[in-house]
Structure formats: structure tokens, C-alpha cells
Amino acid sequence: MACNYLAYPLFDALSLLALLVMAACWLLAVGGSVAALVALLRRRAYGWAAGALVVALGFGLVVQATNWERTYVDSQFRLHRGQLAELAASHRAGTLPPDAVLPWRLRYLSIDGRAHRRDGALYLPVWQDWRAESGVGLGYFPTSPGPDTLIATASGDIGHPVRYLGDGWWWIA
User: Fold this and answer.
1) How far apart are CA 135 and CA 45, in angstroms?
2) Phi then psi for 99, rounded to 5 degrees?
3) Helices 81-93 and 68-79 sit at what angle, rounded to 10 degrees?
4) What are the pLDDT tens digits along the chain (173 aa)?
5) What is the C-alpha to C-alpha distance for residues 35 and 11, in angstroms, rounded to an integer?
């Protein structure tokens, strides 16, 4: 579960190597479950084996059914809501530089550790693919964005606000 939750930070830090980390996490989870089942079956602990199978399948269903992007974004927004509010207040006051270095507690939310002014909005790039052809991020809009609002999320991609998080912050994809 942790690898799925931390997919954005993993891909930011490790780029394509993150695929190997994700695969290793899945192999470890599946391999460990199978090894536990085999060990229990060899000991003829059929009740325990059935219980372990139900638990493993339950965890697998939870992992597959969870929208990890939404879970990550929502939890990070809730965790840093106060700090993001301070950042937004600086942006509204005009005291934030165009490509401001984020405070250390927020720095990992942005792939380059900066908050960028883009078309009147404040944008934190959370993820970009390795060729900068697509990206997603957090955007703060002092006034509610319209349906035709566009933000450059990568050098080769334009996104728009898709989900309101609160306090003027939106998920941009």
C-alpha cells in the first residue's frame, strides 16, 4: 500500500527506477502471501491458511479499489492546509517571487521544490513524466477558475483544474 500511496514522490525521486521499486513491492507482497499460504498448508493448518487467503485477497482488493492519486492529494492537502494557506496569502499579497522556493515542509510536494506563478495562479508541479510531456499539480486561484482555465503543467502539456480541494486550491491535470 505504501508504494501505491507514495507513487508521486517515488517517481519524482527515482524516475524510471520507481517502476522497479513498484514491481518489487508487488512481488514482495504477492510472494510473501503465497509463501505464507504454502507454509500453512504444509503444516496442515487449513483454517489458518483459509484466513490468510481471505486477508491477502481483502488487502489486494483494497489496494486495487483505492484511488491512490486522490488519497495522496487529499491527505497531503489536509496535512499541509495551514502552510498552503500561508503560501496563498503571500501570493495574494504579491510578496511571493515568481518561482519561489517552498518552505522545507512543503518542498517535497513540488518536483523542483518551487511554487510557480502561471497565468495569475500559483502552481506546484507534483509530477511530470520523464520527457516533460505531461504533468499534474496543485494550483491556487485567488478567484474561482472558469471551465476554460488552462495551466501549463509541463513543457509539453496544458492542464486545467479538475477537482476543488478547498481554500482556493485545485488539483490540476
Assistant:
1) 49
2) -125, 65
3) 70
4) 566 656 666 566 556 666 677 777 778 888 888 888 888 888 888 888 888 888 888 888 887 787 778 888 898 899 899 999 999 999 998 898 888 898 888 888 888 889 998 878 899 998 887 777 778 899 999 988 888 888 888 887 888 899 999 999 999 98
5) 29
Domain residue ranges in the chain: 1-66, 69-172
Any idea which residue has 472558469 for its cell? 146
Q: Could you identify the residue written with the cell 502561471? A: 118
Q: Name the strand (E) or helix (H) holding 61.
A: helix 46-65
Cβ atoms within 10 A of the Cβ of 111, count?
20
pTM, to two decimals:
0.75
Contacts of 88 (CB under 8 A, 6+ apart): 122, 140, 142, 167, 168, 169
